Amino acid sequence: MFASPDAVLRPRLRDQARERLRTEIMSGVLAPGTLLDDEQLALRLRCSRTPVREALSDLGHLGLVEFRPNRYTRVTVPRRDELVPTLQALGLLFGGVVRTTIGDMEDRDRAALFRRVGLVLDCMAMPTWQWGADAITPVYRTFITACDNPLLASTLSGALDGLTYRLRHDDIRAALPWEHIRNGLVALRVAIDCRDGRLAERATWTVHLLQDPDRGRA
């Protein structure tokens, strides 16, 4: 039996709606707390409500949309009490990618990454800078691209938008120990320069406020 044209088209419409809305959320066009009405979105995106609902469900799994049955569907509102747990979750995923990737990087890619981390350190001195903004996300994505372990890479890639988005809280500059994080980034830059995967992983633990299990060992 052949699939109907509608059945073939619907997954593409769902993907298009999801990517359009994901881009609008990540770019700030749809601000935290924006109510998402599937009928209005369907009109704006020029599709039926079904792919819009499916797209919203996908974005909910990514952590970009939150649902309250019979109350609202809205763009996720980052919470201050989730900042540290979110950063730690990101670090657990990122640390494994870093450790398995850094030693095999091409010299050109390693040099570019070294400069990019330096840019992050420069950006941290800017009063309007936010973690998860354009300066830091490319560091994560560079490691994802270079990672030879497809499961690690796809896991971090799939979680990246949702986790970095949850770090966009207005109080993030007051809520996190930025000097400690900066020290971790400096250590990461050193590890990148000397191709030390273990040191790089430990540096990511510092950046993401994870306890170093090697600390205190004889």
From TrEMBL:
<keyword id="KW-0805">Transcription regulation</keyword>
<dbReference type="Pfam" id="PF00392">
    <property type="entry name" value="GntR"/>
</dbReference>
<dbReference type="InterPro" id="IPR036390">
    <property type="entry name" value="WH_DNA-bd_sf"/>
</dbReference>
<protein>
    <submittedName>
        <fullName>GntR family transcriptional regulator</fullName>
    </submittedName>
</protein>
<feature type="domain" description="HTH gntR-type">
    <location>
        <begin position="11"/>
        <end position="78"/>
    </location>
</feature>
<keyword id="KW-0238">DNA-binding</keyword>
<dbReference type="InterPro" id="IPR036388">
    <property type="entry name" value="WH-like_DNA-bd_sf"/>
</dbReference>
<keyword id="KW-0804">Transcription</keyword>
<dbReference type="InterPro" id="IPR000524">
    <property type="entry name" value="Tscrpt_reg_HTH_GntR"/>
</dbReference>
